[in-house]
Amino acid sequence: MSKRPHLSPGATPRRQRGAAALLMIITLIVILTIVLAPRLTLWQVRNAANDRGYQALMEVKSAILAHAANPGADAVAGRRLGQISLTPDLPVTAGSTFDGTSKTGCATRTWVPGQALSDPNAANTAAKAQNVRCFGRFPWLSYGLEGPSTADDEGGMVPWMFVSANLVVAAPCLLNLNPLMLSSGYTGGCTTAVPFPWLNVVDDRGNLLSSEVAIVLILPGPPVSAAQQRTTPNDRSPAAYLEGLTVAAGCAAPCVPGTYNNAAYTVANGLAWTFVNAPPSTALGPQPSYYQQPFAFNDRLIYVTASEYFEAMETRARLTALKTLGQFKASYGFLPYSGDDPSPATPLDAGCTLNSRFGLLPAGTACSGPANYPVNYPTWFTLGGWGNYFIYAVDAGCVASAAAPRCLAPTMKLGGAGTPSYNAVLFSPGRAIQKAPFAVSKGAAQAPMVGGVSGTLKDFLDSTKNVNGPPFDAAGTAPTANYNDRMYGIQ
């Protein structure tokens, strides 16, 4: 993006200062963006090292992810971890154009420039959900970044931003904005486990790269044809900036013949909203025979899958859970009980009526025993359903019912003899393992959340040792195809 700041129509120095303040807050958590880097194809990595366009995409990606991981960075009440409130920039009134600011709501597949946007929280049926399209130009001013040198961005230096509406809506449209979503297939409509479709990305031959993409960012580059007129009023639709390509029938396998157009938000079914990740035509020399001619394409694309997105959000949530439990212990001299675990075959429950010591994270005053001390998670943590995701085990000598002095002789171990002992262990269970090879703990597809009801410990944790412990698996145990538990000791 241009290094020259551009003051858009309607923008004021005060708004720019506010955006700059937001950027200062974002930089405080920039470490989170390191773990959020999406996996790039080999040709993308090669071009990223030499192409300022890819550097601009990475800067935009970092800003989006850092903002999403920092609830409280804006004035949106009740925003949850991972919820994107700074949605894309579109012209939403007649005669207007892009101005660099976020516009509330999302478009639909029938949207045209100048129309108002819709509230995706009102998409209460699968049919309505499949019509929602959250896209537009990156709202650089709202994120506190520099804008284009001209309002119409003739050079195509402002990325376009495409987001699954799952990351935009609030509760109760989506209750669990966390990795629990990944254990449920798309059903459609608010209040379901996955209200909106994820996005699709294919490679330059039409082969599917991912059908579970959360965010797509595309840098348009200069026009590739005379049809791409980018002066007002023609710069209001993706087609003026983005292109597509056609993989011809008869292409050598592996390939999937068809037309893939990054500007086509009007596809009838949201399940088929697909983006193509291909090298620019100018970088290929002779045109590949598997493309239908004419072939003119210069979109640069990076994407973040839902799995990568939630893995990064989990980092912030886990640190917050550990901090909250640590503060509780420092204040009261012991740790709370876990959520109820009635029996190995009974679903876990967030309530605390049984004084369980191995289950979901504690919630509410009952989890601290008769004293009724509160466990104070941030609002964004609770609203995002993170208490339904993490598993927590606490030592018998560090709860309210233990004899004083408490917590002085912990017995919980991560690993075998000679390893440190802990008063509690927090588990990040990771994505549910639902395909063979299955987790050894269950031997079948895990179902940590079905219809709002939690599964058993075997639906969260992957090894027999973790389900039956302590002792539990060693911290840092390497993940495998059927194991992705992560364990964190609490002193």
Count of separate DSSP helical elements: 10
β-sheet strand percentage: 5-15%
Whole-number mean pLDDT: 88
Largest beta-sheet characterization: 7 strands, mixed
Distance between the termini: 47 Å
Q: Concise description?
A:
By secondary structure, this protein is an alpha+beta fold. The chain has helices at 13-28, 31-34, 42-50, 52-68, 126-129, 140-143, 306-332, 379-383, 457-460, 464-468, and strands at residues 107-108, 132-137, 160-163, 199-203, 208-219, 244-247, 258-261, 274-277, 300-305, 358-360, 391-394, 412-413, 421-422, 424-428, 449-450, 453-454, 486-490.
Which key phrases capture this entry?
single chain, 491 residues, alpha+beta, 2 domains, seven-stranded mixed β-sheet, 17 strands, 19% helix
What does this structure look like?
This protein has 491 residues and is an alpha+beta fold. The protein folds into two domains: 286 residues, no CATH class; 182 residues, no CATH class. The chain has ten helices and 17 strands. Helix 3 crosses helix 4. The longest helix is centred in the middle third of the chain and has 27 residues. The N terminus is likely disordered.
Layout of SSEs?
Layout: H1 13-28, H2 31-34, H3 42-50, H4 52-68, E1 107-108, H5 126-129, E2 132-137, H6 140-143, E3 160-163, E4 199-203, E5 208-219, E6 244-247, E7 258-261, E8 274-277, E9 300-305, H7 306-332, E10 358-360, H8 379-383, E11 391-394, E12 412-413, E13 421-422, E14 424-428, E15 449-450, E16 453-454, H9 457-460, H10 464-468, E17 486-490
Parallel strand pairs: 4-8
Antiparallel strand pairs: 1-2, 2-3, 3-5, 4-5, 5-9, 6-7, 10-11, 11-14, 12-13, 14-17, 15-16
